[in-house]
Amino acid sequence: MDAEGEDTAFRDGYRRYTARKLLFIACIALGIFIVSGVALTIGGRDIGFFQVYGIALDHLGGATYAQGSSEWWDDYIVWNIRLPRIAMAIVAGAGLAVGGAAMQAVVKNPLADPYTTGISSGAVFGVAVALVLGFSASSGFGGYGLVVNAFLFGLIPAGAIIFISRFSSASPVTIILAGIALSYLFTALSTLLLVTANTETLQQAYLWQIGTLQGAVWSDLPLMAAATLAGSVFMMLSTKKLNLLTLGDDSAKSLGLDAEGFRMLILVALSMMTASVIGFTGIIGFVGLVSPHIMRIFLGSDNRYILPASAMFGALFLLAADLASRMLIYPGEIPVGIVMSFVGGPLFLLLIITSKKGVW
Questions:
Q1: How far is CA 24 from the centre of its chain?
Q2: What is the pLDDT of residues 319-331, one digit of tens each?
């Protein structure tokens, strides 16, 4: 075969390689559509799979109904009660999964997740401060004082890590060790406050720590969606640099990348995105840890595909877990964070046992 024939065969092979990966991501998107439709049918009012999508499209088209009619109730339940929860699950799952994939890339550690910088511990401390001491970092946000506390206090350990890394060494080891130290510190502070709390306050703090999507409303979405979208777009535009970073700092620098500076940018974007998610949903574990691992099994280690695929799979994973949490116990439900722990723990162990050495 001549050089031109080899070049054509290479291009054809690369196109097939890319098409398979894009088809895999499209299949995950189809799974999100199906699981969302099933989740929209779950509830006290019986509404069919295709009917819920028709109701949503009619609502977007401006359809109105006589108040109190059967159509009005269907529209109200689908649009105002069920759909916000589905949207929150998709945004939160995608944000945590992208954050996990990016964190694993910048610290070159498969055990990293979006909470590695101590954001979750800082957010718990912020909630404890609000519940026990009655101190809220915001006075003009109405009922969102708890959310704002969780968001702002969650950024404190992340900011501390960025500060420490900037003036010492922005190496992966520094980030991980500093994150562990700050997590222990904020956990101790939270425990110290909650020891003096009453039973009702403890229950509220506990439910927030394990994560839930109950009570989601449309007004919860704008901040979380904006931060997640902005952070995800920035990280996906930086996938080539993330690929360089996984080669090691020395190799990245030899190829013209400021490894320390770029790592700090990723940490800032990741911190804002993660804090915005857990401020509304609480701490939902394993989404950001497991999703990138599963995607690497099917797609390899190229972050150009891992990040968008992780976002899709994280959304599907959290949607499916929330659906299970609503169906396992009827008429009540258990928080989605518990379901994620039951599923994510054994799944992560299985991934560790069966993972290929070449993935990392």
A1: 20
A2: 999 999 888 765 5
